[in-house]
Amino acid sequence: MDNVGGEQIETTTHGDEVPGTRLNGPIHLWFSLSYGNYLVIPRALLQSMPVEWQERMVKCLEELKREADAAGVECVSTYRVHPVDGRGRFIPEPVPHYRRAPVLFGSGSR
What we know:
The chain is mainly alpha-helical. The chain has two domains: 1-37, no CATH class; 38-110, no CATH class. It contains three helices and two strands. The longest helix has 20 residues, at 51-70. The termini are far apart.
């Protein structure tokens, strides 16, 4: 059991994993001090990465989906996302639509 936001939740560990480290691990640190509950990544940016990177990302996303399904966690697959500025005001979409010519990232893209 781990304490998350004052609530006790059941967690499991794998291999040599120290109990509690998963919830305070790399993803928690990546989100930093934000209160963000979701990660939104523009499709155009994902498709701009090298194919090898995209393949790794897809494998991770598929693994996450399998684990969520196995745990009985229902994941909504469609959300409506609107960009906002630092004050919460709506702003124009900063990343072009994925079908328009995006910037290509990674080795061999320049």
